[in-house]
């Protein structure tokens, strides 16, 4: 298909599964726009796109609330072992006695790695729980009252729930490594709703198996749709198949924005939501 039609294609949509790299761009010599269905665009080589004058767009804002809601849900589900207690009930365990007592959010400091739009929406939702909130980002976010850590290790030392909402890509690859997990400690809970690449999955399995950390809630994995089989055998993890934004309501809005970017582009009005690496102004047309 690409060999026959590649030279005609001027716009593509990506869900982030396939790498949109120089090799693919070589096969699409007329490519003008890559419209991403999702806020993260780590699967697109944006530097290469910028160099070739190709615009890259994503779907920010429309999914912020959904992913933030989901993150709070996954955090509570992991700490209170809600899916495990569902399995317990369904498999008849209750007849033999009550479900085990679980950990609690009540004695915890919450750390958020990544304070972009979604990180801030997560923090806002967690405020009413009355727990201290701290965060890591390269620079402090203006106007935020939470304690800031310029390095992830410092945040991991200071908190015992670490919620990861960092962008994927080379800069954050395996940022949550064995050292960070050790700093999180034996009472630590890791929640990842960002990208699997941000966490060293093998180090995580080690930490979960050896008591290095208490539990993990994971919506994303290094090699989706695959995940390390060891994870599936552990009782102290909650695993979901990358569904943070996965509601009818939000996916419809993401789809609308994905299409709107293509429509306005081919109408000559420029993209609606270009990523910062491929900015578009009327003059750049
Ligand atoms: C996916 C996401 O885009 O927005 C993102 O970056 O990871 C998700 O919303 C969605 O699963 C489509 O593949």
Automatic annotation (TrEMBL):
It comes from Chenggangzhangella methanolivorans. Keywords: NAD, NADP, Oxidoreductase. The keyword Transmembrane does not apply. The keyword NAD applies. It comes from the Bacteria. Residues 2-275 form the D-isomer specific 2-hydroxyacid dehydrogenase catalytic domain. GO terms for molecular function: glyoxylate reductase (NADPH) activity; hydroxypyruvate reductase [NAD(P)H] activity; NAD binding. It holds the Pfam family 2-Hacid_dh. GO terms for cellular component: cytosol. Residues 73-244 form the D-isomer specific 2-hydroxyacid dehydrogenase NAD-binding domain. Belongs to the D-isomer specific 2-hydroxyacid dehydrogenase family. Transmembrane segments: none annotated. This is 2-hydroxyacid dehydrogenase. InterPro entries: D-isomer_2-hydroxyacid_DH (IPR050223), D-isomer_2_OHA_DH_cat_dom (IPR006139), D-isomer_DH_NAD-bd (IPR006140), NAD(P)-bd_dom_sf (IPR036291).
């Amino acid at each position: 298909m690409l060999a026959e039609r590649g030279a005609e294609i001027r716009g593509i949509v990506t869900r982030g599964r396939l790498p949109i790299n120089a090799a693919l761009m070589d096969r699409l010599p007329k490519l003008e726009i890559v419209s991403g269905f999702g806020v993260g665009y780590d699967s697109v080589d944006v530097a290469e796109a910028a160099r070739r004058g190709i615009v890259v767009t994503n779907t920010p804002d429309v999914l912020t609330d959904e992913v933030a809601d989901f993150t709070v849900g996954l955090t509570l589900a992991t700490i209170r072992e809600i899916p495990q207690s569902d399995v317990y009930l369904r498999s008849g365990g209750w007849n033999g006695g009550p479900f085990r007592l679980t950990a609690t959010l009540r004695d915890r400091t919450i750390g958020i790695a990544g304070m972009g739009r979604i990180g801030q929406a997560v923090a806002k939702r967690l405020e009413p729980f009355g727990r201290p909130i701290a965060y890591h980002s390269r620079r402090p976010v203006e106007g935020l009252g939470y304690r800031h850590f310029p390095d992830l290790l410092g945040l991991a030392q200071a908190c015992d729930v670490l919620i990861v909402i960092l962008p994927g890509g080379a800069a954050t690859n395996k940022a949550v490594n064995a050292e960070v997990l050790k700093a999180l400690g034996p009472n630590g809970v890791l929640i990842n709703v960002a990208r699997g690449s941000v966490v060293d999955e093998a180090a995580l399995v080690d930490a979960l198996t050896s008591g290095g950390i208490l539990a993990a809630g994971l919506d994303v994995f290094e090699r989706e749709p695959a995940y390390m089989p060891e994870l599936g055998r552990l009782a102290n993890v909650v695993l979901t198949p990358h569904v943070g934004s996965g509601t009818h309501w939000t996916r419809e809005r993401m789809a609308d924005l994905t299409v709107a970017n293509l429509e306005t582009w081919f109408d000559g009005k420029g993209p609606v939501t270009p990523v910062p690496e491929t900015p578009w102004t009327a003059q750049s047309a």
